Every structure is written in structure tokens, then in C-alpha cells.
Amino acid sequence: MVLLLALAVVVVIQVQLPAPLSAPIILRNYLAQSAIEQAEQGDFNEIERLMTVLKSPFDEHPELEHYAQKPPEWSKKLAVSCSS
Predict the structure, then answer these.
(1) What's the distance, Cα to Cα, between the start and end of the chain in Å?
(2) Digits of tens for pLDDT over the chain (84 positions)?
(3) Which cofactor does it need (predicted)?
(4) Which of 2, 18, 47, 71 keeps 20 to 30 A from 27, CA to CA?
(5) Which contiguous run of DSSP H or E holds residue 83?
(6) pTM, two decimal places
(7) How many domains does the chain have?
(8) Is residue 52 part of a domain?
């Protein structure tokens, strides 16, 4: 009986929840690297733009649409390190 009830709950949850969504804009390594390099030169505009779009990645940002594009080929060479 408990197993049947648990199964019913799972089915109800699956029916009521929308399909998983992927945000059209995510923080990619090359975007972060570019913003970091500009900030190191004293220009924080790219960081501010990224923060704006990442605060609401599901919203439309026509002026920042380029952030949703596929990564450029050169970005495949970037390596991420967590060491400090």
C-alpha cells in the first residue's frame, strides 16, 4: 500500500511539473575569461553586463543576445583551474 501511494505521488509530481528548461544564457568559460581580462585592465563593464544577464537568464535580453550564442572555436583551448 505504501509503495503504491509513493508511486502515485511520483506520477502526480511528474505530470504537474513542466519539462526541465535550459537557460539560454549560461556563464561560459570564455565569457568569464574575457570579463576577467577586461577587469584586470580596470574596465568592469563586461562584468556588469554579465551580472545583468546572469541574474535573469530566462528573460529576454535583446541587447545581450550574443551571450546565448555557441562558444567560439578558440574557447575550446581554455582550461579552468580551481587552484589559488
Answers:
(1) 54
(2) 444 444 444 444 444 545 556 777 888 888 888 888 899 999 999 989 888 888 888 888 888 888 888 888 888 887 766 665
(3) Mg(2+)
(4) 18
(5) none
(6) 0.62
(7) 1
(8) yes
